[in-house]
Amino acid sequence: MTPSMPMRESLLVKGGRIVTAADDYVGDIFIENETVTLIGESLDVQAERVIDASGKLVMPGAIDPHTHLEAQSVLTTTCDDFTSGTVSAAFGGTTSLIDFCMQTPGESFPSALASYHEKIERCEPVIDVGFHIAVTDLREGGTLEDLARLPDEGVTSYKLFMAYKGAVMVDDETLFKTMQIATETGALVMVHAENGDAIDVLVKQALAEGKTEPKYHALTRPPETEGEATNRAIQLARVARSPLYVVHVSCKEAIAPIARARAEGWQVFGETCPQYLFIDETVLDQPGFEGAKYVFTPPPRAQENQEHLWQALSTDVLSVVSTDHCPLNWKGQKTLGMDDFSKIPNGGPGIENRLHMLYHHGVREGRLTLNRFVELTSTNVAKLFGLYPRKGTIAVGSDADIVVWDPAKRLTISAATHHSQVDYNLFEGCEVVGAPEVVLVRGQVIVENDELVAQPGAGEFIKRARFGERLEPTSRAVAAAS
Ligand code: URP
Ligand code: ZN
Ligand code: ZN
After folding, report:
1. Is 221 within 8 Å of 297 (Cβ atoms)?
2. Closest ligand 1 atom to 297 CA
3. Domain with 429 in it: what CATH number?
4. What residues have CB less than 8 Å from 101, skipping those under 6 apart?
């Protein structure tokens, strides 16, 4: 990450239809020192650069709170780093992401955080980056004291895996103690909710019966294991009085306890991802080991779940659509599990196409309003993860993270044209209408007309506020406004 240069140029985004989670109006946006300083109808200002946004939508940049860049697992490392991953994100209209800083079991939290800072320093991210800490061990390396200090470093969410037994899964004691620390420190607890013990039994039984093909990935992780773990995490969070965020919800068994919790007024939130809205379990059974491309966790579910997920998104049972971008090449990485589905590294790519798929099938096909689209991909993420109102909206004082969106632009999604390093695309061949035309990160033009025009290293590390607290404008913003 090269030191960020403050943006000196002033910029006017003129005549676009400005859509936030709450508003929808035509206007001009004036940007100075990386910040929105004025919004109004036909602004009478001199700007060094004018972007004509007439006929376009102008929305807050999307935020992806669930990515795995340069993430190491037992067998391999994801194939996008913080350069290629953020470039791919930017082409899809995402202007910030929050990645998982993984504590290797036995490692201390300061050491894990330092190694993730090194990763972004070594790379040249073009969008802003924050970290969650993924807690895998509180017995050997990780201490509660160190965990409690992380929010001071801007790491204000603790993620735990209730699955992946023998690798990063935690027991309920570790989960519960982390929840108690979160209550003290104002962090948000995130869970990957699946019953890892039951899944481990099912996987071993399947392999003993000679069932080795990719389809057994789904058959050994039934939706009830997700529903059970989701409910367990919710009940434990109630006892600990911590807020809870359930990642990658895939099925009606997990939606039900979240719906109940929210109806009761508990602080429980859930996200889903495009793969669960558009891909069903049948893809795993494709010939020629093609099914391995869809080995992500939780697995693709029976198709009927997709309607439940859309319903949950439109009724505020689920609050966010993230990507869980975890890019692993089919050739050389997925093929590690050619003879044993349990050795196929888990994860699928998606960082670039979240907005394309959600706009086309959500907004254009009438499942989501435009305001809800912005809320699910940007504003709610900012509010839950301590970025609001600096990010997640278009308002005076906010970072000028803006997507000028062409609602008529046609795109065929393909690995041949995406900007991730990965050798396949989960949505290969999907034709969509609606795509970014210009993408700004703190007023810097990053992508314009399908070209990367960013300064290398334009992205910055973001120190996030605690759960429920505001992230106030930067000193740059204050200087620009005065
Ligand atoms: O299969 C997936 N989702 N891999 C990434 C790790 C996780 O569980 O989110
Ligand atoms: Zn997960
Ligand atoms: Zn994930």
Report:
1. yes
2. 1
3. 3.20.20.140
4. 112, 113, 115, 116, 131, 132, 133, 134, 155
Report the C-alpha gap between 177 and 154 in whole angstroms: 21
Q: What is the pLDDT of residues 400-445, one digit of tens each?
A: 999 999 999 999 999 999 999 999 999 999 999 999 999 999 999 9
C-alpha 458 – ligand 2 centre gap (Å): 29
Reply yes or no on whether the pLDDT at 319 is more than 60. Answer: yes
Instruction: Quote the CA–CA distance of 335 and 332 in Å, as a whole number.
Output: 5
Residue with CA nearest ligand 1 atom 8 = 297
Nearest CA among 423, 290, 330 for reference residue 76? 330
Q: Which letter does DSSP use for residue 51 in this model?
A: E
Count of Cβ atoms closer than 10 Å to residue 397 Cβ: 17
Task: Indicate the pTM of the whole model.
Answer: 0.97
Q: How many domains does the chain have?
A: 1
CA distance 288 to 245: 37
Boundaries of domain holding 197: 1-482
361 CB within 6 A, ligand 1: no
Measured in whole angstroms, how far is the alpha carbon of residue 371 from the centre of its chain?
19
Mean predicted confidence (pLDDT) in 372-395: 99
